[in-house]
Amino acid sequence: DELKCLNNLKGGLELVLRSDFEYGWADDKLRSYVTGAASLQGKGKLVSLEIYLGHRQSKEKSKIVLEGLQPHSNLRQLKIRGYKGERLPSWMMSWGRLPYNSLPNLVEITLSGFQNCRYLSSFGRLPHLKVFTIFNMEQLEYVENTSTAAGSLSHPSLSHPLATASPPNPLFPSLEYLALELMPKLKGWRKMMCTSSTSSSSSEEESQVLQSCCYYSAFPRLKELVFSAVGLEFVPEEFRDLPALESLCLDFCSQLTEVPEWIDTLTSLKKLEIESCYTLKSLPKQMANLSNLDYLEILDCPILKERCEKPTGEDWRLIQHVPRVRIGRNEYQASSSPTTTLCL
């Protein structure tokens, strides 16, 4: 209740909600209490907000509580930990829709410890978002889940009959850093479901077009992309053709089966780190086209390590142009013998 009248709060605020405070409360009473007691929508001078939800809250109560904690639209940094609901509250679901957007000024988002979400929301219409981190979500399968009726594509391949005349403004127009970490069930970025009254084969074809085209223009300023300890078998197609990407990290992705063949569409890539991806068996031939790649690191990838060793490895020819290469304990520089690193 102390927060209710403090509408001139400036800077940052951290809210730690006890796990037992909602027991015995009816849903309507709980919703009214949280909204009134926190009164976050009246605190327009807050720059950052961190919300930690108690670990023993039920799914239903957790959603009601977070629904009542909608911040003022001026907020720039948001961190949420420990959410137990299966779906995000309505004020977060609005972030992917135009013209309404509840938090248009967000620059940084961190979401962690969401225990029951299989999907999150669309975040692509946050115009100023620069840093986006999602980690420690055991059930998450896709960041976005979208149902789209056939013929309602927003920016498809113009060669397909479902295409529209021109693409809209890019999604994630300002995003520079994206990290997806500790999500063992992650299958991809977006799950696209096409709803249509046509035949199943036609619906399947349209769904594939939707999937391949839904990010025709996205992440134009993304510089650093991190996948760490996620369940991906492939790097999602949404991350091809990124003109600004300089750093890509594939870390502890034990189910990852390949480095994508479209890796050479990342024309600005300078740094590629691959660590503890045990099922990776080779590099694609397109690696040789990465003319701006300055540093390549391959650690704890047994099969890949053998194929990339200088000078006899089958894939060495694909990476010999890279000025600095580290494979296991051996570090190679252009036109030099390997340097062995000893850990004493």
UniProtKB/TrEMBL annotation:
- Pfam families with a match to the protein in the record: LRR_R13L1-DRL21
Q: Sorted alphabetically, which Gene3D superfamilies does this protein's record hold? A: Ribonuclease Inhibitor
Tell me the superkingdom of the source: Eukaryota
Q: Which InterPro entries match?
A: LRR_dom_sf, LRR_R13L1-DRL21
| Domain annotation R13L1/DRL21-like LRR repeat region: ranges | 2-137
What is this protein called in UniProt?
Answer: R13L1/DRL21-like LRR repeat region domain-containing protein
- Organism listed in the record: Opuntia streptacantha
